[in-house]
Design goal:
By secondary structure, the chain is mainly beta. It contains two helices and 28 strands. Strands 2, 3, 4, 5 and 6 form a five-stranded antiparallel beta sheet that branches.
């Protein structure tokens, strides 16, 4: 009897695993690695991972603590060394002074070519109270400088990585205190001096957390999270002056997205393929988590389903294209862990997305 129960338990566990990780199902071609960055950590809740490639390898950062917004939430990093992710190490906290401590939020990594590794993050009681901070590493993320407060009114890149455009590091940013507004902050000296644009959108669209794509014609394109049920875009010739935003035919569920331009000039987007109306106030509202590719930033093809479970959320992706041409993604897994996926874009099997419908 015990043997039969053991067999039944193993079968049931295998069934749950197959449901949670649909590796044998369509839209998985091209995935080389699919793993958690850590198994256990000192914090129960985690969110908002970012990823970068240093001369010594990949590095990821995220915020972790008892719950998003609590004062014990800090910034942690994990480095990919000899094929394994290191144990998360705390590198920043929200201690403001001897009597005041706030939560940390939304780290963003950026490797300066031939220079420092930058880590931007925010401190605040909530998003309306955010202040921007920056720490630097000269040894690929092993050790970090003391925190530098950004000038008042500057937050740095709000979720997604900056882009070096000409003489400026362009940081896609946004605010949520007077409606959802996107703007861009830029620095000619990697965070020592700053300037910023006005908001690029009016009340027509509620948008935050832009990503920047590099188009083949020399222009730049932003893709934004929105409360308008579609991804919102705009064009620029220099990353500072932007045309009027417009909606593209890709669904949006009021959750973070990220996108990157690949070595061949095509683009890759990581997002939840679901509309806001389908997910509002539902715990499974940030699932599935999908990958799409495009040649022009407007017409997209279904490529991967990273997660498709009704349990909890799979959200806030960060994506880069590595020096070897592989795509590296990190994202929140149920607010419990950070998951890492490596993809060979040449092996993706795609189908056109028509009318915002993910193809069967």
């Amino acid at each position: 009897m015990k043997k039969q129960l053991s067999i039944l338990f193993l079968v049931f566990a295998a069934f749950l695993s197959a449901c949670d990780r649909p590796n044998q199902q369509p839209y998985r071609a091209g995935i080389l690695t699919d793993e958690f960055i850590y198994d256990t950590a000192s914090f129960p809740s985690v969110h908002a991972a970012t990823i970068a490639e240093t001369p010594a390898g990949l590095i990821s950062a995220f915020f972790g603590g008892s719950h998003e917004g609590n004062p014990d939430v800090c910034i942690f990093v994990s480095r990919h060394i000899d094929g394994k992710w290191s144990e998360p190490v705390q590198v920043a906290d929200g201690i403001v002074n001897d009597t005041l401590r706030k939560a940390c939020y939304n780290p963003v990594l950026h490797q300066v070519p031939g220079g420092e590794l930058l880590l931007f993050y925010k401190i605040g009681k909530n998003v309306q109270d955010w202040s921007g901070y920056l720490i630097r590493s000269n040894d690929n993320g092993a050790t970090w400088s003391r925190p530098e407060a950004l000038p008042e009114g500057f937050l740095g890149p709000i979720k997604n990585r900056p882009e070096q455009i000409g003489d400026y590091l362009i940081c896609p940013s946004s605010t949520e205190d007077n409606g959802w507004r996107v703007h861009f902050e830029y620095t000619p000296d990697f965070g020592k001096t700053w300037a910023k644009t006005e908001a690029v959108n009016d009340s027509t669209f509620d948008i935050i957390q832009p990503s920047i794509l590099r188009l083949k014609d020399g222009r730049y394109q932003m893709l934004c999270r929105s409360r308008n049920e579609q991804i919102i875009s705009a064009y620029s010739t220099d990353g500072i002056h932007w045309d009027a935003p417009f909606a593209i035919e890709m669904p949006q569920n009021n959750s973070g997205t990220d996108a990157v331009t690949l070595n061949d000039g095509s683009h890759l987007l990581v997002y939840n393929h679901k509309k806001l109306a389908e997910s509002w106030d539902k715990p499974q509202g940030r699932s599935p988590l999908n990958v799409a590719v495009s040649n022009d930033g407007l017409n997209w093809n279904a490529a991967l389903i990273l997660e498709d479970s009704p349990i909890s959320e799979y959200s806030y992706p960060s994506v880069i294209c590595g020096s070897d041409g592989l795509v590296h993604i990190v994202y929140t897994w149920r607010r419990e862990k950070i998951r890492y996926v490596a993809i060979d874009p040449s092996k993706l099997q795609t189908k056109p997305i028509i009318g915002e419908q993910w193809p069967e």
